[in-house]
Amino acid sequence: MQPLNAAFPLKQTVYGILLCFCTPAFAAQQNPPQTAAYSQEWLPVYPQVSVNGRVSDGLFPFMSDNGRIFVQTDTLYALGINVPQAILQQADTRQKSLNTDTETITTNEPPLSAVPSETPAEEAATPAASEPIQTAYEPTVSENHTESGNTQIWTDLSSITGLDIEYNAAEQTLALTAPLDWLNLPTTVIGQKPERAYDIAKPGFAGILNYDANITRNSSGGSTQGILAEARFTTPAGYLSHQHIWSRTRFSAERIKSQNRNVRLDTFWRSVWPEQGLIMTAGDLITGQTGISGSARIGGFKLEHSYRTQPWRNTSPLRAYVGESTLPGTVDLYLNGVRQYSQDVAAGEYEITLPPSISGRGNAQVVATDMLGRTVVVDMPLYGGSDMLAKGLNEWSLEAGYLRKNYGLKSFDYDKQLVGSGTLRYGLTNFVTTQLHAEGGGGYRRFGIEANTVLGSLGQLNLSHAQSFFKQHKGKQSSIFFSTQYGNWTFGSGWSSTDDAFTGFNALLAPAGYHPEAFKRRTASVSVGWHSKSLGSFNLSYLRLKSDRDQTDKTGTLNWSRNIGRRASVFMSASKYSGNHNTYHSIYGGLSISFDRGYSASVSARHESGRENSYRVALNKSGSGVGSTSWNIGWEQQNNANGRNRGRLNGFVRHETQYGDAHAAIYHTPQSTNWDAGWRGGLVWMKGGLFPTRNVYDSFAVVSTAGLAGIPVSLSNNHVGKTNSSGLLLVPNLSAYQKNMIGIDTTDLPQDIRVERARIQAVPSERSGMAVDFKLKRMQAASMILKDENGQVLPANSTVFHADDTPIAVVGFDGQTFIEHLVSGNNTFEVSLPEEGGICRFNIDYQAKSHLGSLPDLGEILCIRQ
User: Fold this and answer.
1) Distance from CA of residue 603 to its chain's centroid?
2) What is the phi-psi region of residue 468: left when phi exceeds 0, alpha when psi lies from -120 to 50, beta otherwise?
3) d(Cα 520, Cα 515) in Å, to the nearest integer?
């Protein structure tokens, strides 16, 4: 915010000095009217001028008469004040009337012409306008403010309606406050930060193998062994992925027969251009899934544009408020009573952009306070929708290929009919996001449209409609859903209708089974939620499903939960179902308590009318990352309606390591005991090393510590492992396209190790690897005390030079000296003594191997004068 006069004492002094020189020159150029009144009262002045609180640099000429200030139009223009012509004409009329009444100066005196500056220096001293400064005062105002014979008219500032004036003759300051539409001021933008893309690491060459090996066995002798694996090869141009499953099942001890399965799941190549947001996939893929279309597996080609490769970019609609301030001031933004940011603004318009963190219904409040303490508060009820795109943004995908059949059962089973689909999401406005989808092939077609819209501050409305065409049958599907949130309340309601003839790609895989009937399925739902700190959270929902076959299913549910202190919580759920000539209800509730070190316990009970009752108690231990163990053990008792009781015991344990996770589970009843165990891990080849690791489903990094082993490495302040004997460690499961903070622990490093930086920001590409090199350098250095041949310490500030005359150190107090960059063997140095003390030389025999891990103190070293 610009103060009214940020450096008034200094500026006033400067202006006063300039005024001493400019005023006589100005007066000398005057050819005043022959009246005593003018010579005694009319004076040229050069005040420090501020316009709407902003101090204007430069000298601007004004005329003063008994406290009245006169100005030329060009001077107002130079100050950035564009007075409308109608206002100027009114000022002329008002000033003419005033002069006639007062008769201060006779009206028959002709206007005097302007006298231009004699030198460029004089012209530069008064830069008020582009034209030469006019030095004549015309007491009677002409009919307009145009030039006539190179003459400029002086106007009384007080006669200009709408212009506020505050003139201080003693301090020579003039504060002008004009309407904002007279000023050409820039708009101050508040809160909107420019988009800043960060660098994404180029993928390197790497090989990845993820595997999940598991074995199960039941009490009847049956067993299953299986491996689910993914092999991936990454390059700078993209990556190739292949997924496979192998299993062998033995059904029982009596039946020796076993079943083997060896099936390819998915194989595809993917290239990504994150800066453009483009993704290309060739091979096995899934078509775009939207609210009006289900997904389908095909073998083919897909090209898509998505903002998920640019997480730094905000794609949600942002609300903005435009206000104005006549004087400089401060603008604060509050969201739901919490201040988000505050910023000083100059006079003029300001645009405040609301942050994208608004979800659901809320209230934004803009508080503008000017330099005089006047405050204006503007309340803006608003609603932040989900799955919305800002105006003009779009995402799309195009797919073409052949439908996959018997997925998970056969490796290469594709339909022979070519199909394709396309989807487009577009931000029509900041309040409406539309979506179009089309798919078809083999005599099947389907089209759909969807719209998400925010209804002011009321809530969000979703509308969709789709039609399918197959075997001369036309099917329709329509839906509408409304949701809102107000304070502690949430509300949602929806309706949908689907014809039996409505179908998708699955009709092409089984055309013989497509026999639509003339009925519709209609679904209606409503839910209401309320949250209270003292009473807990409540949610009531109702679902009604009806078809033309006179079958109606109704389900009502009430849920409640509440925290008791910081360690305990209680929950309860009650539901009622009626339909198909049956009605039953159920009640479920429980209590959970957490303890220190990750331990927790829970008890729960369930009652279902006409069916069974069950009771369960469990004890849990949660893990804390690599090197930790988590487990669960529980007992459940079931009582059937026919009087039969049965209990079961189940337990689970998992241990996480840097190289993979081991897990085992057991399920025991009086009749049978089943168990399973397995190991889940991975192998990564990169930078010439093979790393056993946990599953690497996302991106990863190979950390290098310059050959130093045993260095702890962390990811987002969570320990992930230590470097191996080669100083390398693989860090799995980084977030693609996002900032991942990788750090090393330098507290236990040897003394002779120097670290340039201990934290590096890693931004990998999708499911690829990158190298993160911590530049650790081993120092060969030593400290010593330098003395002369007489045993006296060398004077402080003496300069130590290497043999090549390069200065490398300075002698400190008491001869203390620290020298770096020593070489193994003999080192010769010269010391330049201050105050013409001459030069002395000394040698150091440094054995690097004997000083690994330390910075030795070599004690006293003699420096011999030359």
Assistant:
1) 41
2) beta
3) 14
